[in-house]
Amino acid sequence: MTSPLVEIRGLEKRFDLSGSLLEQITFRNGRFQRRQEAVHAINGVDLQVHKGEALCVVGESGCGKSTVARTVMGLLSPSAGEVHYDGKRIDVLKGRDVLPYRRKMQMIFQNPYASLNPRMTIQQTLEEPIHFHHPELVRDEVRSKVQEVMQSVGIDPDWGSRFGHEFSGGQRQRIAIARALAVDPEFIVADEPISALDVSIQAQVLNLLMDAQETRNLTYLFITHDLAVVEHFGTRVAVMYLGRVCELADTKTLFAEPRHPYTQALLSAIPRLEDDRPSHIRLQGEVPTPVNLPSGCVFHGRCPYANERCRQEIPRLIATDGGAQVACHAVEEARL
Amino acid sequence: MKNNTPLLEVKDLDVRFAVRGGDLTALRGISFSLDKGERLGLVGESGAGKSVAAFSILNLIARPGYIAGGQILFDGRDLAAMSERELRKIRGNRIAMIFQDPMMTLNPVLSIGTQMVEAIKAHRRVSTKAAREIALGKLRKVQIPSPEKRLDQYPHELSGGMRQRVIIAIALLLEPEIIVADEPTTALDVTIQAEIMALLLDLCEQENVALMLITHDLGVVSQVTQRMLVMYSGRIIEQGPTREVINDAQHPYTQGLINALPQMGEPGARLFQIPGSMPSLKNVPSGCPFHPRCTFATDQCRKTMPEYVRSGNVDVACYEVSNLIEQEKQMQEAGS
Q1: What residues in chain A have their Cβ under 8 A from chain B's Cβ atoms?
Q2: pLDDT at site B3
């Protein structure tokens, strides 16, 4: 296989909760103590995104999927680990060196009501990234570029003088996609791009993303909590739980034969049209807080197959016969 | 046909909102019924009027909204014509409501126990001690771990799933005959959603409570309800037994909604998409409100709203469907 377009190695991200030095110090039992707390959002994630594929990252709230997206884009700097783009490490680049990557990598956000500047017309919104990344283009060239990109997402170019609030949610998301496409990126990070939309509009936007992928040869890192979308859209899927990848596989493999107990529970929880009753695997308890991570496997507290080893040793992603990579001692020991 | 009268019967309900520049019609000629212990799903996209329909059942439409016509018959009495005083005896007591966001419905400065006791004492003459006992029993019913402890906790100390369990416990406090649940799991993760939906379904069956479930998720409707209504632009366009509607949808909108789901398409193929989006209440199209997005639209559709026709056990408001039924009839007559 060729080298991946984007590669994440040993990525970790912590968000400090303890505040300034003074806030960290408490007086207890007759002595001063310093306490530091952090949210462990990502705890050692390795992912490779290959050219032309759509790698979907799924998981429930708080699993770190959006943090992965933002760290890859350079919107957050990793606490540890590396991000590589086309063989070059980009998380340490500064200033002008980042610019070419800012053009090649674009992002689409969840909420099109928040991601469009309400005081800019659509024309201005779409021209801005082109002006910034292609200062050499003259006005007419920029304008025709904007027209072309608006047409390609199904927005009438005559609407350029309107503002974001004049459009419906689906149209706004099309505009957000147009803004990402305007600078001819190679790689798009889409963070829950259809979660805020209605079912019939979701289909429109999903089709648009697939069309763009085909015509522009795009590579996607697609963040979502909606497994039905993943099954339809993704080439490969990474399932995350509490900041770790617990299973990574081809979409078909993952849906046909989920191996990790968490993946199995997650898949069984999708409400399907053919169901007459809920038929999900029951998990005990709830997701623990990422402030105090459980020891060993992060899932052990809710896993029906957990044993002593799971409580102590962190499982690594290991390739299985089916082609999936699973981080689970029970799968590794063939207990499951 | 049913020979006994239904528990709740809504007849020709019109709800309007008085705004500057004239009235907006949010619900137009809504008619449906709910039997004792029946589970009814109300499906539609944002702006279809699902929540207005749910609120109007408890006559909770706040100004500038008002009920402009029709009846809401509960136990032989018209809720639409009742005084606030009389309504208060029914709300929360005989008809309970569950809302989407549990953090918005629980009072953040009162403990769970206080809120539950308050609800009981508003309707029953019991001691605080006895009320706490009832509350405890209901918390056990919704399978909250260590319920005694929860009574003295505040909403922010609970997770989202736990809060929604508390809300369900509160809804059950006074043994209502109907629970109206407006998107009860939309704010929750899939695994939690599955748990909550299964719980709600079990409780309704055990206690023989009728459930009116408002949701945009057809999968959930399929799992939980026996009958469903599909709403579009303030009208019910199709209603019938859930299985029949989902397996053999008649209205082009319902068909489109189902086919637009990613789980219906072949992975990687383009999804079926309904063009355009739901009209705003400010300019509802003439005739059938779906006609601008419908592939079967004729002049008749553009001019007048179709009447309901029966196909199998399903009532549909669509000229295309009624024409097909008419043709079939003629063919049969010609055959015999």
Answers
A1: 60-61, 168, 170-171, 198-204, 206-207, 210-211, 225-229, 231-233, 251-252, 265-266, 268-280, 282-283, 286
A2: 53
Decide if B281 contacts B263 (C-beta within 8 A). no
CB atoms A200 and B274 under 8 Å: yes
Mean pLDDT over B170-182 rounds to 94
Whole-angstrom distance, CA of residue B133 vs CA of residue B131: 5
- Cα–Cα dist B68/B74, whole Å: 18
Q: Encode pLDDT of B80-119 as tens digits.
A: 999 999 999 999 899 999 988 877 889 999 999 999 999 9
**Does the distance separating the beta carbons of B161 and A269 come in below 8 Å?**
no
The shortest CB-CB distance from A60 to any of B189, B217, B263 is to B189
Q: Tell me, rounded to whole angstroms, the distance of Cα A247 from its chain centroid.
A: 15
Query: Please, what is the angle between helix A169-181 and helix A122-133, to 10°?
Result: 20
Q: CA angle at residue B241 from A278 to B44, to 5 degrees?
A: 75
* CB–CB contact B193 A271 (8 Å): yes
**Chain B residues whose beta carbon lies within 8 Å of the beta carbon of residue A227:** 190
Q: Which positions in chain A touch B193 (Cβ < 8 Å)?
A: 269, 271
| B292, β-bridge pairs | none
Q: Class for domain A6-19+34-234, per CATH? A: alpha beta
Question: What does DSSP say about strands A25-28 and A105-108: parallel, antiparallel, or unpaired?
Answer: unpaired
Q: How confident is the model at residue A288 (pLDDT cuts 50, 70, 90)?
A: confident
Residues of A in contact with B159 (CB under 8 A): 286
Mutate to test the interface with A, among B277, B278, B280, B295 (most CBs of A within 10 A): B277
Q: How far apart are CA A32 and CA A36, in angstroms?
A: 13
Note the pLDDT of residue B2.
47
From B195, B216, B270, residue closest to A207, measured CB to CB: B270
* Each residue's pLDDT tens digit, A114-148: 899 999 999 999 999 999 999 999 999 999 999 99
- CA end-to-end distance (rounded Å), chain A: 30
- Reported as a single tens digit per residue, the pLDDT across A220-255 is 999 999 888 999 999 999 999 999 999 999 999 999
Q: How far, in Å, CA of A9 to CA of A71, rounded?
A: 12
Asked whether A312 and A296 are in contact (CB, 8 A), the reply is yes
Q: Which of A232, A266, A275 sits opposite B262 (nearest CB)?
A: A232
> Where are the domains positioned within chain A?
6-19+34-234
Note the Cα A27 to chain centre separation in Å. 41
pTM: 0.87
Give the chain B residue whose CA is nearest to the CA of A61. B189
Contacts of B262 in chain A (CB under 8 A): 202-203, 206, 226, 228-229, 231-233
Whether a cis peptide bond, with omega within 30° of 0, leads into B64 is: yes
Query: Do B211 and B179 contact (CB within 8 A), yes or no?
Result: yes
Amino acid B80 reads A
Q: What is the pLDDT of residues B275-328, one digit of tens each?
A: 888 888 888 899 999 999 999 999 999 999 999 999 989 999 999 999 999 898
Q: What letter would DSSP give residue A195?
A: T
Q: Considering only CA atoms, which of B243, B248, B218 is closest in space to residue B321? A: B248
Residue B34 in tokens = 């709910």
Judged by a CB distance cut-off of 8 A, whether residue B295 touches chain A is: no
Under the banding of pLDDT at 50, 70 and 90, the label for residue B1 is very low
Taking CB atoms and an 8 Å cut-off, how many pairs form between chains A and B? 129
Give the ipTM: 0.82
